[in-house]
Automatic annotation (TrEMBL):
Name of the protein in its database record: VOC family protein
Signal peptide range in chain numbering: none
Domain of life the protein comes from: Bacteria
Residue intervals of the VOC domain: 8-129, 143-259
Pfam families in UniProt: Glyoxalase (PF00903)
Amino acid sequence: MSTQPTGSPTWIDLGTHDIDGAAAFYGELFGWDFTDQGEDFGHYNMITTNGAPVGGAMSSLMGPEGPTEEPQNPTAWTVYLGTDDIEATLSKVTEQGGKIYYPAMPVGELGSMAIAEDPAGAAFGLWQANQFAGFEFTGKHGSPVWFEAMVSDFDAALPFYRDALGWDTHSMGGEDNEEFRYVTNGKDDAATAGLCDTSAWGDMPPYWRLYIGVDNTDESLEKVKALRGTVLDGPEDSPFGRLATVQDPQGAAFQIIQIQE
């Protein structure tokens, strides 16, 4: 079972129309290894670095009946939040104004997964661990280090994550700060994820985004460009490290941030 508090990110996976291209890009950038789990698991790929689980990847050219000509979903990363009782959590999701895209389904003996959406429109996964708890926070280059939901309807999302996902919310901007509204699940060093109000940032679609730690942000950005990825924003310095927004050659966006010693 996961040692992280309920509602904390526990897994990430990539849906992409080009598994081989993604494996080449992330392998060069982060040192990730992609391993096909075979037909029984729909050729889902486990991603590891130095043996530590990082995430997964699956082809979007696969439907319920088998391979398809057109992608079934956009190329994007999904963040999974942990739960001890996936069916009970899904009931709370609908009670608190969320939606269920894919109901709970077992993944062999590893655990059970589902895909849902919060009331602000940000999609996320749910994972109830059985034999597999999720990724490992190694704190090294190529490790997932932070996750946050970016929403314009902050007032709808905040009670949802509290009541449906069991978040222990703490404000970073101050309870009365209307200019910057950001809460974390857990406080300070114990925080596991964030919820950010984007309503002042223009027409920004709601989504969950993830940060991958790197040894050197500027060097990683040069490698992103050399590997035919795209730098979307940054780099810029923050209190938490030098960060940037990038996109892989297939179109999936994510953040990188320099690991602070």
